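Problem: given the chain below (585 residues), write out its structure.
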Amino acid sequence: MLRSDMRELYSRSLSITGCAMSVSAGQHPLCLSGLRVHIIETKMRENRLQRLRELLGGKGAQVVKRANEAELVVTGLTSPARIAKHLDMREFNIPVVSADWLCRYICNDDVKEIVLASHATIDLAQYAVHGQGDPTYIPPSIEVSLGEKRPLEAIYVSSESENERAASSKRPRTMGPPSETPEPDSTSKTWTSSDVSDGRMTDGTDGEQSYDHDTDTEDEGAEYDRDIPLDPRYKNVSFECCRPHPLVHHNMELVTQLQLIERKRELSGEARNALSYRHAISALISYPRAVKTWKEARKIKGVGEKIAHMIREFLKTGSIQEANTIKEDTRFHVMNLFASVYGVGPSKAREWYNKGYRSIADVQESEEHLPRITQVGLEMFDDFSKKMARADVEEILGILRTTLDDVEPGCIIEPVGGYRRGKPLSGDCDVVITHPVESRTGDLVGKLVDNLKLKGYIKHIMWFGEGSDKEEISELKLLPGRKYSFDRLAKAFVAFLQPSTNTYRQVDLIIAPFSIFPCAVLGWSGSKQFERGLRDWCKRGIKGYHFASHGLFDRRTNKRVDVKSEKEIFEILKLPYIQPTLRNA
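Solution.
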């Protein structure tokens, strides 16, 4: 079979998304002799890159400088979102494999061809750009000579005029035109703030190859380059539940800029990378003084080398270049807008952007057959986007108390979420409700919602579930391969009319049996990162326990542990009690 025929056959076997990776693709081997291979060099050290070239050359393969000329793409990157930045994703149909896999596969002298099994290829389907779906998409530059250490990237430009673009090209780099920040090559001699972590490792690194300190020239005598010890008051542990996290802290501006970068990573589909930022951010929030040097920051568990050097950039210049670029990035702001719609996550936000939508109105006009939850989210977008002051939350709490007195007198109501953590503004209102007589919480969520609807307070019910009773959740039942981030409590998430403002608010009503009430209050108080730290502590710190909002469980017996208060939960887990207002990790 001629190579062109084989490639055509392979292309026809691809899924309709236009991206590599159906199982059927693995049925057509690629002959190594004469095979055209493109290497994405970002994050590949020179010795590793040279070894890969030698292996390919020894098999008769040809390394080409343009991905669109290749029959196979090889990369050292692990994040599909990052890989997609280096390729023209308009109907991309070339298989992509990891460098590690390929080296292991072809190191045997007897291997003459590659069989691309589905597990070996990297799925880029969700990053495909179809036809004219995204008129602002510009593929990465391909005019790069082999071995050049300049990264390729997919650049997204705004619809500004030619004059505006010309003017923007004269601005400083920190105020440049909207774009995705490029990834620097790990072999480059200059570190930049976009060379970020890609996951949190147990040793506190950023999850990527270590940074070579010799490549970043230090300023002799500069304060931010000094090697100083950590503040002795700081508890340097990786579990957020072990440390206090106040709302107002000593590293406010630094954290704000890192949060912007973290959000960008999350919207780009780099969840592991975003998690690395959240661990570092929570540590900086907890740190009892302003960070003085990047070497000091590097000693904090959760702050890896890449983020530590971002901190150096901040201490030196007063800002982080990538954060400044993100502020001007049209693509980021549009996807952030979409992801703020109730029921819409980063994946759907990327999908809408790639279809060419640039506003909520674009989505409403063009999208058909949306799930009901998304329809409600779009309808309620303007109202749900308005923040609630503490007085707004208290007004809603008053209505709930009055209604509960009618439905089931004697109920106990506890506002949780950001309100309980002391935040002056909240995006929603979370409320945990119980009754001292446990049997009276069985059908309480249904009766409460029906009464509120009758009085005209509820317009939409986004989620409704009656949960499990106390007996059904008395034992820990975890199934392999499942994540248990959602609890088994009765709950209703509703669009709730606040009378004084005539605004619909997102209100989450959670009903807990009295014996589980402390766990429900702790689990729903947040923050999300604090709760993650608490679950990690149960699993990797003290070990032997599992915590969820529907109970604390002893893994040795799989039985739920009876607790009377939040403080008792901390005591059982051998943790210092952290006040709710200090859980803003």
